[in-house]
Amino acid sequence: MPRRPGTYSNRKITAPDYASIRKAEEDAVKDTLGALSRPDDRVERAAAIIRQADAEIAAHVGDRNAAVASLWFYERVLGLPKVLGVYPTAYREILAKALYGDAKRPLPPETLSTAEVAQLAEEAGVPHIEDAAEKLPELARIVAAAQARRKTAVPFMQEAAFALSEEPYGWDADRIASYAGVSRRLIWEQWDAVKKRRRKAAGG
To answer: Which three-class secondary structure state does DSSP give residue 158?
Structure first.
């Protein structure tokens, strides 16, 4: 569908260097966990990294999403998926969730003017954040960094949890879960993930 001329903002927001951010976070986690030879130490430290990452994501992703929704619905700023470091589909889901409470609903047509879109957002209760452009890059950076740490730590924890279930350790799921400070169900899921990964590596 064609865009209406003059509908979009000329504002440019510099995106964080996500490739460098993610690599630095991944390398730091690999160095930290790779230095631990014992699986009990590794599972405990990996669980702590994941918990901290989850806490950082929970603390900042709402503000990040509110900032990007404000910039789109009230200013019609282009290039926001790149600023967020997400794919366009995920970006559209963030906007749909903010406007409708449903990430899967289609967004309003791009033929609407800035004023028309802003009216829809205001009626839906989307907050207009005056300094959203200044806040967004840092909020997005924090979330992306935490997501990278989490993604890197998960397979380390999975492998360590599985190693603890084998000889010479022979720990059951309850003991591993208690030691790592997680649920028994998560340990079962991690064991399953390792088994699937090994079957795939073996061509099964």
So the answer is: helix
Could you read off the pLDDT of 73-112 as tens digits, one per residue? 999 999 999 999 999 999 999 999 999 999 999 999 988 8
Q: Which amino acid is at 51?
A: R
Summarised one tens digit per residue, pLDDT across range 5-58 is 557 888 999 999 999 999 999 999 999 999 999 999 999 999 999 999 999 999
Question: DSSP per residue over 65-134, as a string?
Answer: HHHHHHIIIII--S-HHHHHT--HHHHHHHHHHHHHS-TTSPPPPTTS-HHHHHHHHHHHT----TTHHH
What does pTM read for this prediction?
0.92
Separation of alpha carbons 192 and 71, rounded Å: 42
| Interval 148-166 mean pLDDT | 98
Nearest to 188 by CA among 152, 161, 170: 161
CA distances from 109 to 78, 114, 116 (A): 15, 11, 11
